[in-house]
What we know:
heterodimer; A: 341 residues; alpha/beta; Rossmann fold; CATH 3.30.70.1150; four-stranded antiparallel sheet; 14 strands; B: 258 residues; mainly alpha; 13 helices; globular
Amino acid sequence: MSAENKPLPIIEVLNLRKKYGNIKALNGISFSIGKGEIVGFLGPNGAGKSTTLKILSGLIPADSGEAKVCDVDLAEEEGEVRNHIGYLAENNPLPEDLRVIEYLKFRGLLKGLQGSRLRERTKVVLEICDLERKISERKIGNLSKGFRQRVGIADSLLTEPRLVILDEPTIGLDPQQSAITRKMMERLRGEVSFLLSSHILSEVEACCDRMIILSHGQIVAEGTLFDLQERFVNKTVFEIVALGNKINLQKKVRNIDSSCELLLDDPVETTGKRRYIFATKNGESVAERIVKVLVEDAKLRIFEFQITRPDLETIFLRATKENWDKSDQEQRNKIKKGHRK
Amino acid sequence: MRQYCIILKYELFSLFISPATYVATFYFLSLLAIGFRFFIESFVYTDWILPPLSSLTVGLIFGAPALIPFITMRSFAEERRLGTLETLFSTPISNVIIVIGKWSASYLFFILISIMSFGFPLIMTILFPEQGQNLGFNQREHWIGNALFLSIFGASFTSIGVFASSLTKNQMVAGMLTFTLLTLYISFMAFSFGKNTDKSENNLGNILYHSFNSIINGLNKLEHFSVGLIDISTILHQLALTLFFLAITSIQINRIYR
Lengths: 341, 258
């Protein structure tokens, strides 16, 4: 996205830090999110995703750094930000005894809606989240996980917020329910900015305009999927589904192109076949030459071949690996120092 | 104020839909009614020096450790267990309003039970006006004094319950903690009953000592309240105790979530 086309920022974060005791949850992160953007927040467990989302929602204060959300400076008016955003907490806690409609009315009242506006907004969010009629009259405690998640999302959309922060919105949902959540975000694309954290990479890949990858409280990668593909796997990636000896296959590939690197090797269900993902610096023609040679080999059986782009999982593993190695080394150095003392 | 009313309404609704509240209220009122009946029957043979109406107040005060936990244990413990307190904090509402709203609901429920229990002498006076008059149930100042005494002690008792509920995620633990704290407090009051506090010097230390003693010796003042003599210092001391527990509840909630 060029500088002129870049949307106005709805979130601006500069050098944000947070510590829990001796543990650095956030180690000086900086990023910005534009109006109407859908941004995915990725990272392994304990990377600092939920901490960042809680700080941006005004739930907990940061130790240092600057953060502006919807033009509200969090350092000065931490509570004020809650008037402008919708927030879905991790695990989506909900009261069991209330009916969906009662809960949404209660939340709407707390958020300052009343009268006809409250009725109108409740109706709209029930429709957006597909919770109309019978479901809205049911007790939350009797709802399935998918419906509960939709109730949480409906609550976050009640006040027509400019920004919605969703902490793991699709965790534990079946593919159908996840697709409904994605559809809901697609419907609001452009009108509302979404910042969502998730472990389901295919989901983030499918619905986010941009991704921010966090590891050990630091941002290790940021950009569109294309940007990340260019940065982390700037090679031609090809996929082969084959039946045969892995070492033999790798040897044959290396004979043709010594720079060819095996990125992933996965079994294909219970068929005995394996899916190999290779990356080469030498372009598509070399990849095609490799497959021609492999097809002619009687000991190997090739079932599929395609030239692809690296998926988010490959990028995620590459981006976080570097950071993991670095912090592992730091940890070892600390232990060594401790032993010397 | 609007947000306070929303929280209060929601909490009252939660109390009214909880079966535990109904069971506790039913058993408590039944036992109180039986106790009151036997007391009225045997009143002439006892050396009870207070007006007979105050027997209900004493019953409610000494029964509070069994009743209050059922009213207050849900308030924060259940929200902490479900995690809904975090969702509550994601709205533009301060934790002070949440604490006061939850406490007010518990307090109003306690007042409601007290009103129901005062229905016993009222019904008796309507059905048997002569006996009612003999027992002093027609004395308006007795009703006002006892009601006031109960309402100020109810405020501090429920604030202790709400505080205990903020300490744990388990309703049962919160209930047991409330029971223990209230039993200790009432035991102190019972053991200090009849002791006079010296108020000879007016320095700060003596005033604080006197205030503490007055909180501990709260039951002594029932003698005055039960005949309609209102002791302002007792009201202020119980109010201070209520505010103290509500303040530490607010700090505790703040400590956990912010």
